[in-house]
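debug: dumping io for the single-chain case to check the tokenizer round-trip. Nothing else runs in this session.
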Amino acid sequence: MIAGHFGFAAGVKAKERSAPLWALMLATQWLDVVFVPLFAAGIEKIQPVAGTADGAYGESIIYADYTHSLVGAAVLAIAFGGALALRYGRRNGVVLGLVVMSHWLLDLLVHRSDLPILPGNRGDLPRLGLGLWQSPVASAAVELALVAVGTWMYAVAAREVAGPDPSLARRARLCASLVGVTGVIVLALNLAGV
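debug: decoded output
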């Protein structure tokens, strides 16, 4: 769902113009950014689904029991939003925190039942996930739709901000194109198992 997360962030930027695009893009991936060192340390794990190719799109069970637990994601969202609120203001901090939480909600849609509620899966509560990854075509279509809609929303907003200035209009088109092209490339790489 990496590309889908980026598409969502671009759509949020269209509505929350004072929030920096870089911060929205980082916010939408923040859970995965924190996941990487925990994965490298062996604390969180990724295992292929039995009988599937290692690294195939959507064919993994992700045991991110701290970063991707509902409570862990909320804590990371509050920390990220709070830290950036100091620089970009309270409203942007709240928006950025909510974008961090959007990662968990979008993951809930695609993940198999591997998202815990409490950090470390305390209490051994049922793991959550609606499993859209079990249909790679449907999952990829949802991601592509998020990229397309987010890019379109961002492009429309950027054109409005640019107004009649041709230099700003060119930059707006370039940025919107980069958002869309990057999203499609990331999705293609994911589908290829990279």
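debug: round-trip ok. The two ends are 13 Å apart (CA to CA).
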